[in-house]
Amino acid sequence: MSTSPTTDAAGEPGPLLGPADIRELAAALGVRPTKQRGQNFVIDANTVRRIVRTAGVRPDDVVVEIGPGLGSLTLALLEVADRVIAVEIDDVLAGALPATVGARLPERADRFALVHSDALRVTELPGPAPTALVANLPYNVAVPVLLHMLATFPTIERTLVMVQAEVADRLAAPPGSKVYGVPSVKAAWYAEVKRAGSIGRNVFWPAPNVDSGLVSLVRRAEPLATGASREEVFAVVDAAFAQRRKTLRAALAGWAGSAAAAEAALVAAGVSPQARGESLTVEEFARIAEAKSTIQGGGL
Question: Which pairing describes strands 6-7 and 132-136: parallel, antiparallel, or unpaired?
């Protein structure tokens, strides 16, 4: 297994992985990227540098990375951040990553930690609390993983994820957009969300059949002002988009107990019963959840 350094953008020797390094590492480990886990390894050093730069990673950051794979982005993060915690589900990849870090960035190896687990099951991380999340997320679990991490680790202030372009569009979509939906609203509960760039197919191995996009999420300085819990608000969101072609009066009938009860909550929240979920902000969904609780509690 080669540990020879790649060269950086200026032609100087560097620790990052290039296309030949990735293929050599994969061959040595007997790794073949699987569609089941959505594995597409980044083979371009300039792309991972761009991701770290776009993420605004600082020298005092504790960064959590999901699905590090062979370590392309991990090494770029370690060059800049104070600490990097990588969460990897794959047995072979998890077993190999510490050795790759040790060989290519030995002076930073003590600032790296590996969690061998399914990211959706992670509830705690070793060392200081994470301040940033940076990851190339498999498209098949991107949204659940992102929302789980934001919910579980409130200290994560800044997030930059690379996801399938279609998923990036959904996450960053504003109310009224054709692709605005459950992921858009739930992400907005936690953070200000925006598209932060596009990534071509040729920087991956194997090259995917879809383009990728970068999504930036900056956590709200103050949680959304509402008397409703996150679970209550998300229940409204799920109900509204389960039948997105219907008016909210009809779509929320099951959630509220009846169409009349749904209408009462909507009117109390200042939302038209004839509106559709795709036109509402996360604040309006929160008002609907709060109104139902107030009505049921006898406050209205």
Answer: unpaired
Contacts of 225 (CB under 8 A, 6+ apart): none
15 close to 105: Cβ distance less than 8 angstroms: yes
Rounded Cα distance, 211 and 199, in Å: 6
The tens digit of pLDDT for each residue in 243-297 reads 889 999 999 999 999 999 999 999 999 999 999 999 999 999 999 999 998 887 6
10 Å CB burial of residue 261 (0-12, 13-18, 19+) is: middle
Structural tokens at position 74: 């991990």
Query: Which pLDDT belongs to residue 205?
Result: 87
Q: State pTM to two decimals.
A: 0.91
CB 164 within 8 A of CB 213: yes
Q: What angle do CA 249, 254, 257 make, to 5 degrees?
A: 90
- Mean pLDDT (the chain, rounded): 92
| Class of residue 197 by CB neighbours under 10 A (exposed 0-12, middle 13-18, buried 19+) | middle
